Amino acid sequence: EVLNYKKRPLFRRDYKKPAINRDIVTFHPCKSFKIDALDIEPFPVDHSVPGAFGFIIHSSEGPIIYTGDMRLHGQHGQYTKEFVEKTSEAKPIAMITEGTRINETKTDESEKKVYTDSKKIINKEKNVSIVDFNFKDLDRFQTFYQIAKDLDKQLVINFKHACFLERYHKDPFVEAPNSTDESISLLLPKRHTGTYNKEDYSDAYVKKRLDYPNIIQAEEIIKNPRKYMVVLNFWYFNMLIDLKPYHGTYIHSLSEPFNEEMEISYDRMKNWLNHFDLNLNQSHCSGHINGTDLKHVIQKIKPETLFPVHTKKPESFTSFHDNTVRVIQGKLYKL
Questions:
Q1: What pTM value is reported for the model?
Q2: Where are the domains of the chain?
Q3: Sign (positive/negative) of CA torsion 70, 75, 76, 77?
């Protein structure tokens, strides 16, 4: 429900009612815009996906800060630092802040470390390397893309990855190669007949790309496995059957499991890896600010009232901010 939505509460009798289209309005970094009587200043912040923003909301009672998701340890930590400087100058009456990792201390995590550690692992691997990361994380894509170029390997992506990459490539505000880049190959999956019969491919996003010059099949990777780094998400692990990546390396460049459902999926993933004798490596840095950095940010901004959101531990904020409000869903708060 991004482009449209249905009013809540939503009852079964309302399922077939047409959705209401949202009024989508674009804005530009650091250029104010209005919503009714509110003047809003958007500032880019560093996060694991491009297009993350924090906001200064100018109300009749005073400025309100909304951080969105942010971090200081990523490739563009300077964005977040500049946002913090601007918001501290605003002297806000309130701050709505993310707090995903409020109880985690600062470590040496960084995108540079992901690059260094992963490159070292992949460079030693004599067989195929499998990597898994959130493809919407453009910084992480750039990390593995650069590793592939540095080690003279081909980064193998799937057709859905190609859709993302082509959109990123067209965006003037981000730097990304096209899906037909010379260091990128597009892995053709087997479908209904278990072959590469063109009639098997009915999805439009696949059909329109079948004539790309950099399409590769699993059999080609098997012939020279060391030449390739294959981006393969857990939900596409059935492709391992065709890739036959025995005794290779798997880099899990995602968060480790933090709930029961994720732990079940993680165990299933390890079963696949054990079957193919793939060496599991963890190499990741979070898209969210750690607790140590977040405390410093809040202490610098000095909001009169603090509203932690996007956190399971809102009570942790009370240890360093006296006027912390624990947000209750559906409740109206007045400043």
A1: 0.89
A2: 17-105+288-319, 111-282
A3: positive
